[in-house]
Structures are given as structure tokens and as C-alpha cells.
Write a structure and sequence with these properties.
- The structure is a single chain.
- This protein has 261 residues and is of the alpha/beta class.
- It has 2 domains: 181 residues, 3-Layer(aba) Sandwich (Rossmann fold); 68 residues, no CATH class.
- 38% of the residues lie in helices and 25% in strands.
- It contains 7 helices and 10 strands.
- A 6-stranded mixed β-sheet has the order 6-7-8-3-9-10, sandwiched between helices.
- β4 and β5 form a beta hairpin.
- The protein starts with a strand and ends with a helix.
- Bound molecules: adenosine-5'-triphosphate and magnesium ion.
- Adenosine-5'-triphosphate (ATP) binds next to β2 and α1.
């Protein structure tokens, strides 16, 4: 059964000068519970727009979005969002303070907050770092704390917008492994945005490729049924999936470049 369903969703941005920009048009997608879905597309095609609508930060101009059969109308604790390339931790709070922040806001007792925050701190591999402030942590560690903070709220679904884009290659590979492990352990449903075909193949159950904007929608979906061993960049099956995805995205990259000129 699908957990998230987008049906004929469009998003029109109205500029201050009164002209409309149709970012997304007639976008439909079902994501079953427990699936890791990667959304891929050229810069500016509308990936963040789609994620923001699922998160409830932006209203769809038409069409419907539902989560577990309920229409999405606003942000809620059932969806945890990791934002695109930003550093949204609170600098004045420790790692622990950041992770338990949402629980505190929801009035969860101190003992329960601590127990949960410790659990998620360990889950992201940062045991013993609880007292450090963001300025004392590396980029990869901060990203882990952001993920732990979102997980601590125990959302049904994770919405992740290029969460590893700013990390170096090694940390990024570590984080990909870590995220896969966490998702397996917690059975989360994930909508994950990336520019990176390799990253999508490493992580996804399915990869959706969007058209170049404006009026973008899903151009195609590639299922990734590879085993862990096959998700190695050098594996024949990996390169076969790569080719399929590349085939879908190649023309869109060319189109996006043309439209910029
Ligand atoms: N608030 C807004 N008002 C007007 N236009 C917007 C707004 N937000 C996004 N857009 C436009 O909608 C289109 C899609 O933007 P979006 O941020 O969803 O792209 P994206 O696929 O996430 O790009 P990137 O890969 O660069 O993050 C872009 O052309 C952008 O300029
Ligand atoms: Mg974006």
C-alpha cells in the first residue's frame, strides 16, 4: 500500500511582478511504505518544490498529496525534513540539546527525551559526542546530528533534500552507508533528492527522473533491485542501471542548458 500519493500535482509560483512560473505540472507518484525513493533531475527542475509540497511547506496549486490516506495540508511530525545544503542546527545547543529539541517542544518528559536522544545519537554513530556544540563538530558529524534530530521525532517518513551534497567523498560514502543501515533498522519511508546518479543507485529502491523545467513532472522510474554487493560502482549490474538512468536524464540536462542560454 502506498504511504505517500501525489496525484496530478502542479505548482505555480506567482512572482511579485505578477507573472506566473509553472514549476511542476501534473506530477504523480506513489511511494509505498518502507520504500527508499530517490528523485533525480537537473538543477531548477522542481525537486525541492515537490519535497516542500510533501512536507507541507508549500501548497500545491492543483492536484492532491496524501500521506497514509490523509490529505497533506501543513507540516507535521509524521514527516521529518533534512534540508538542502544548510546548517540548521542551533549553535547555542549541544548535540544532545539539538536532538531532543523537537521532543522538548512537544512536552516529552526529560527522562524520555534523554533516552530517545541517546538512542538516536548512537544510531548515527556519534556516541560520546553529546556534549559538543555544532561549532566543535565536523560537517559530517553535523549532518548526522541533523538526521538524528529528525529521527528523534519518530516521523513516518523522511524527506531529504540533497543532505550529503556539501560533504567530501569519504564522509559522503560513510553517510550513505549509515543512512541505509538506519533506514533498514527503522523501516522508514524515504523521499531523497540528489543530483548524483551513483548516490541514487547506492541508496534507492526506485529512482525517479524529472524532466527539465518548467512544467516538470516524472519522466520515468527505474527500479533498483541490486543486492548490496552489486551496488558497487564497478559492478556490471551497477553500470547497467547507471546507463538506464543516464539515458533518461541526458536529454534533460541538454534541454536545461539550452533554456539557460
Ligand atoms: N518561491 C519561489 N518563487 C518563485 N519561483 C520559485 C520559488 N521556488 C522555486 N522557484 C522556481 O521553481 C523552479 C524549481 O525550483 P526548485 O528549487 O524546486 O528546483 P530544484 O530541482 O530543487 O533545483 P536544485 O537542484 O538547484 O536544488 C526554479 O525555476 C525556481 O527558480
Ligand atoms: Mg533543490
Amino acid at each position: 500500500m502506498s504511504l505517500v500519493a501525489l496525484t496530478g500535482v502542479s505548482k505555480v509560483y506567482r512572482s511579485l511582478k505578477g507573472s506566473d512560473y509553472v514549476a511542476v505540472r501534473d506530477f504523480s507518484l506513489d511511494i509505498p511504505a518502507g520504500e527508499f525513493f530517490c528523485l533525480l533531475g537537473t538543477s531548477g527542475c522542481g525537486k525541492t518544490t515537490v519535497l516542500n509540497m510533501v512536507a507541507g511547506f508549500e501548497a500545491a496549486s492543483s492536484g492532491t498529496i496524501s500521506l497514509a490516506g490523509k490529505k497533506v495540508t501543513r507540516p507535521d511530525a509524521d514527516r521529518g525534513v533534512v534540508f538542502q545544503g544548510d546548517d540548521s542546527l542551533y549553535g547555542w545547543l549541544t548535540a544532545m540539546g539539538n536532538i531532543e529539541f523537537g521532543l522538548r517542544m512537544r512536552g516529552v518528559s526529560r527522562a524520555e527525551r534523554e533516552q530517545k536522544a541517546r538512542h538516536y545519537l548512537e544510531l548515527v554513530g556519534l556516541k560520546g559526542q553529546d556534549h559538543k556544540h555544532p561549532s566543535e563538530l565536523s560537517g559530517g558529524m553535523k549532518q548526522r546530528i541533523q538526521i538524528a534530530r529528525v529521527l528523534a521525532n519518530e516521523p513516518q517518513m523522511l524527506l531529504m533534500d540533497e543532505p550529503f551534497a556539501a560533504l567530501d567523498a569519504h564522509t559522503r560514502a560513510d553517510m550513505q552507508r549509515e543512512l541505509k543501515r538506519i533506514c533498514k533498522a527503522t523501516g522508514k519511508t524515504v523521499l531523497f533528492i540528489t543530483h548524483d546518479i551513483d548516490e541514487a543507485i547506492i541508496l534507492a529502491d526506485r529512482i525517479g527522473v524529472m524532466n527539465a523545467g518548467p512544467a516538470s513532472k516524472l519522466k520515468g522510474i527505474v527500479p533498483v533491485t541490486l543486492s548490496e554487493e552489486e551496488r558497487e560502482r564497478t559492478h556490471d549490474k551497477f553500470t547497467a542501471v547507471y546507463r538506464q538512468v543516464h539515458e533518461l536524464i541526458r536529454d534533460e540536462v541538454a534541454l536545461a542548458l539550452q533554456r539557460q542560454q
